[in-house]
Amino acid sequence: MPAPTPSRDPWFDNAKMALVTLVVVGHAWTLLPDTRLNTHLYDFLYAWHVPAFVFVTGYLSQRFHWTPQRLWALVKTVAVPYVVFEAALAIFRVKVGGEELEDLFTDPHWPMWYLSALFFWRLLTPIFRPLPGAVVVAIGLSLAAGLWAGDTFDVARIMGLLPFFVMGLKATPERLALLRQRRVKQAGVAILVALAVVSLSIDSWASTEWLYYRSTYGQMGSSDLEAIGIRTAMLTMGTLGAFSFLSLVPRVHGWFTRMGAWTLVVYLFHGFAIKGAAYAGYSDWADDHAIVSFVLTSLLAVLLALGLALTPVARRLNAAVDPVGTAERKVKATLAPDDEDEDKDGSKGEGEDGDGDDDGVGTRRASGEPVRLG
Questions:
Q1: What is the mean pLDDT of each run of 10 residues along the chain (374 residues)?
Q2: Does 111 sit behind a cis peptide bond, omega within 30 degrees of 0 on the bond before it?
Q3: Exposed, middle or buried by CB within 10 Å (0-12, 13-18, 19+), for 174?
Q4: How far from chain centre, in Å, is Cα 62?
Q5: Residue closest to 24 by CA, chosen among 364, 358, 362, 299
Q6: What is the Cα–Cα distance from 189 to 248, expressed in whole angstroms?
Q7: For position 24, what pLDDT does the model report?
Q8: How far apart (Å, rounded) are the C-alpha atoms in residues 260 and 363?
Q9: Which stretches does DSSP call E strand in the chain?
Q10: What pLDDT, on the 0 to 100 scale, is given for residue 341?
Q11: What is the dihedral of CA 173, 309, 161, 176, to 10 degrees?
């Protein structure tokens, strides 16, 4: 794997790998019994870790433009994996789990909504990046989306989480540097503790479903005014929690940093393991061993994320995640083996300082390296 370029901040890869690990942990927790502790920790995690993920994705999407090259990169690294894994997971869920799925591809099934959202967020980037007051506009759209947004391509979540993406688009290295201050880190710890306390009472004034940003206000059974207030509270909690977490992410380069290059591999493949465990009856065992199952499930989820992100494993799985890029590289290696050798020796790939984007979804699109997840 090419050595990181000096201009690349390891903080982003550390943040991405930490966040995709938390995604795996959160999804694994759905296998656990609905105890008060499990519900509380789940609500606490979902209050901020997806917003943080979306923010990082937005920041790493700033260079996207409506050019043929970048649009093609978006198709082959986001749209193609969406089609491949929406189909693969559907086959797995139907054939192995006996589930019945409807509206394949047009209504993203778990956990493919993020790729659908990323595709449309990226297309909106050239509009929001230069727009004055873009964050305010995005908040307005998020609040309004609860009135009408539906399930097609999960537009409800695309619009609901849009403010976090736009915050990322508008962030600058100078502003992010403020997160390094000692007092900001201390405030971050205090805010996360406060959110942990607040999440104890979420079910008394809202519900876990609000944390998904996917349901209309009518479906939630709230008046429009009340619902807008709840959505505003969720956006506030997500923003505070995301920045608090990001302030605590280390900026040192190490083995964990290198795993951040393979976040899309982790995201797309972990669903098979989670669903497989559910089909195998893991939840039945967990119901009878509440405490042990929580500890074991959390540990196994972390190990799953780390295992999928191991370079020897991820390199092989990446052929399925980035089939078009893999084919292009094989053709290039056949026609120009000397150029391929140069790439392997560490020339810049499209996802670094080349012509492509590090889109936050986990892949470098050159030299056989990953397609990135944010």
A1: 54 96 98 96 97 97 96 97 97 96 92 96 98 98 92 94 98 95 97 96 92 94 94 98 97 94 97 98 97 98 98 96 93 75 43 40 45 48
A2: yes
A3: exposed
A4: 16
A5: 299
A6: 8
A7: 98
A8: 9
A9: 361-363, 371-373
A10: 52
A11: -10
Look at residue 336 in the predicted model and tell me its pLDDT. 74
Identify the pLDDT of residue 333.
Answer: 86
Write out the two tokens for 268: 């797309």
Q: What is residue 363's three-state secondary structure?
A: strand
Q: What is the pLDDT of residue 9?
A: 81
Output the CA angle 30-34-37, nearest 5 degrees. Answer: 100
Length of the chain equals: 374
Check: CB of residue 367 under 8 Å from CB of residue 343.
yes
Question: Is residue 226 within 8 Å of 210, Cβ to Cβ?
Answer: no
Q: Give φ, ψ of 321 to 5 degrees.
A: -70, -35
Angle between helices 36-59 and 290-308 (to 10 degrees): 20
Side-chain-side CA neighbours of 29 within 13 Å: the count stands at 22
Q: In angstroms, what CA-CA distances link 342 with 140, 333, 338, 354, 366?
A: 48, 11, 6, 14, 11
